[in-house]
Amino acid sequence: MPYLVILFFVVLYLLATFFFHIPALVALVYGVLSLSCFVAYAIDKSAAKGGRWRTSERTLLLLGLLCGWPGAVLAQQWLRHKSSKRSFRILFWITVALNIGAFVYFSMHYAAPDIGTEVAPIEL
Q1: Rounded distance, CA 72 to CA 77, Å?
Q2: DSSP string spanning 1-69?
Q3: How many Cβ atoms are within 10 Å of 55's Cβ, its own excluded?
Q4: What is the pLDDT of residues 83-119, one digit of tens each?
Q5: What superkingdom heads the lineage (predicted)?
Q6: 15-33 burial code (b ≥16 CB/10 A, e <16)
Q7: Other CB atoms closer than 10 Å to residue 51's CB: what's the count?
Q8: What is the rounded CA–CA span in Å between residue 73 and residue 79?
Q9: How many whole angstroms separate alpha carbon 81 and alpha carbon 17?
């Protein structure tokens, strides 16, 4: 199931790129923040095993919300970290939904469309 959400987002991103000309910078942001989020989960997992200072759940959720959620999904699956605490998982999936919703909103309202809608293009 978690991998399907990533696949869904990739398809959504490709469609948005085709129809709305999403800048390549957006993909770079998602990639860098996903990698950063994955590393943050790995560091927190190591700290949990070693009894050291932990990364707060709020920080992990914020990284996910700020476009790092694909990396978080992979970390949860591959590292088996933060994958069993129900309250965290619920908040995490809410942040994923919020991020995807924001992506769709900004794609439709601020990109250059090819489908006849009247919106202003993004200039980065």
Answers
A1: 9
A2: -HHHHHHHHHHHHHHHHHHH---HHHHHHHHHHHHHHHHHHHHHHHHHHHT-----HHHHHHHIIIIIH
A3: 15
A4: 778 999 999 999 999 999 999 999 888 776 555 555 5
A5: Bacteria
A6: ebbebbebbeebeeebeeb
A7: 7
A8: 10
A9: 32
